[in-house]
Every structure is written in C-alpha cells, then in structure tokens.
From TrEMBL:
Pfam families xrefs: Chorismate_bind
InterPro entries xrefs: ADC_synthase, Chorismate_C
Organism field: Formosa sediminum
Residues passing through the membrane, by range: none
Name of the protein this chain belongs to: Isochorismate synthase
Residues in Chorismate-utilising enzyme C-terminal domain copies: 98-364
Amino acid sequence: MDQDTFFHSLNTQFQDALPFVAYRKPNEERIQALFQHDDELHETKELSESGFVFAPFDDTSKMILLPLAASELIYCDGFKSEPVEHANSNFESALNQKTAYIETIQKAITAIAETDLKKVVLSRPDYVVKDNLEVFEVFKRLLSTYKTAFVYCWYHPKIGLWLGATPETLLKTEGQRMSTMALAGTQVYKGTTDVSWGTKEEQEQQFVTDYIVSNLNTVVEQVSTSERRTVRAGSLLHLQTQISARLKKEYSSLLHIVRALHPTPAVCGLPKPEAKAFILKHENYNREFYSGFMGELHFKTRQTRNTNRRNVENNVYATVKTVSNLYVNLRCMQVLPNTIALYVGGGITKDSNPEAEWEETVNKTSTMKKVLF
C-alpha cells in the first residue's frame, strides 16, 4: 500500500488501542507492520511460534509475542525519506545524573581490578519532558535518520510504547545457516569511516567476538569470522565483526541459539553471570526491554532460482525457507506519560576513563533526542 494509507492504518490501530509493530530492516526500502486483531497479551517461552517477539534484557522475564496467526501483515514499499531538520534545543543531562553514572563506573572499574569481572556494560535512562508526542512523525524521522539500522515502533496497550533504531543484529537464521555480529566501541562520525581506534575499544570488541564464538561452538559448526571493520550508525561509528555458522541438527531450536547469545557482552559484560549480577545490583533502575531483543520469528520466505517472472519453468522449483531476524534493542526510547525515557550505555573495562564513558553516552543520545523535536 502507499505511504499515506500505511501510516493512516498505523494510527487507526494505535487509536483503537490494539497491539502492533511497524519496522524496516537495515538497508531496505520496505516498511512492514503486524497488526494484532485483539488486545490479548501473548508470551513465548520456546521461541517456536511464528510472529514478532519483543524480549527484555533480563532473560528470566517474559518474552512478548505478536503471533502471525492472530495478526494481519501489511507493507509499504514507497516510503519517501525526507531531510530531518532538528531544533537547536538544550539536551544537557542533569548534573546529578552524571555524578551518579560516573560513581557507578568507578565501582565497576574497582570490581574489574579486584574480581574475575573483565567487562561490564553500564546503562542509564535519560528523560526528556515532552507533551503530546507525535508518535508516527518521530517514527518517520527515525526511518529518515537511521537508514542502516533496524528501525521500529512497537506498541501493546498492556505493556507500553517503544521506538528505536538499533545498529546491532542479535541473530539471523535461514534454514540451517545462522549469522550474528560482534559490535563494540563508539566514536563520533566526522565525515569518514577511515579512523583510528584506541586499545580500549579494540580490546572491548575482541572480548565480544571471542565470547560469541566460544558460546556458539557448543550449538553450531563451521564457524567463520570476518575481518574487523568500522561501520556507521547514524552519527556514530562502531567496530564490527561478522560471524556465521551452520546449526548442529541436535541444537536447531532457536531458543538454544538465543540462550547462547543473549545477553551479549555488548549489552551485559564478561563473564556474563558476574556482569549481570553487577548490573542488577548497581544500575538502580529496571532496563525492561532496553538491551533485550526483538524481531521476526519463523517467517516463511519463498525463493526462486530466477527472479524473472517470465521464467515460469524455473519458478516451479521455488523453495520456501523459514527465516528469523532478531535485533538487540539499542538506541531506543520508551514513551511514558508526558515524558520520553531514552536508554543508553557503554562498556566498562579496566582501561575505561569515567568522564570519557559519560561523554560516549551523551553522544549516543544526542541524535535520538533530536528526532523528538
């Protein structure tokens, strides 16, 4: 359907207080949406259903599902991206928020020096007072600003409203093949991706890569990793390594793979149990769905040998594959009454500088704040 009809349908679903998700995958043009027919709250425990999953950081909490069987799937192939003009607003965070975050970072550095903890990812909420948010205008700005990210708008009347643009893939599976990425390190984009990285960022990214490969070795085979490269996500740069493998038949359950990956060192730390315990004790707020994961579960895709529609003979041999696309919920916001909560974090290691870590979180929130105005 055309863009106007698509966004009108989204608004109608929202006004009717019915669950939905609208999203665009990285580097794609098509936006799609899943409209649930009623307001029932569905959960998934095994990740075996078909639908869209929205899962929290804490892997012991409920994973929410919009089931394909109880929903309608619609598409918009003609979204017209427009230049985003940002107001010159003051986006300074409160001084007490900075003080508290730096104190927590210092505790983490001490714990890393005195225990087996190697890395811990510390996050914080940043609140923006905003009345009468135009939800779908913000969604359009995210779509225009973050073309290489997974951009989404998710709503359930019994959970709430979330929007975001994440640069990080948790997992993609297609048949017996899977791929993921190790993403870490941050610096501001200044017109080029040909940049230098410090020892701290390179070490942090290597931690993530090594952890993912080590954990996957129990459930996959034929693991391969790409060269580390610099990638752009909006106004920021990150270090990325692509990882691919083949699923072992005895571990072909999606839940096995997700448990091996989530939460990754990029959002939790190393070793995972110690890092998670430190986070739950010291962050002093509930991350909820920030740094959780979301995406398509067991969608069916039809692939032909020849994309030329006139080649009927080859199209007879089309195959149907089951595909899952899951993303880590970063660069996101939660819409609260008269307030927007933005969530942001950074990886702390023994070489971290607390003031620099604070500035990194400020850089990560700056573009997200601008799309609100």
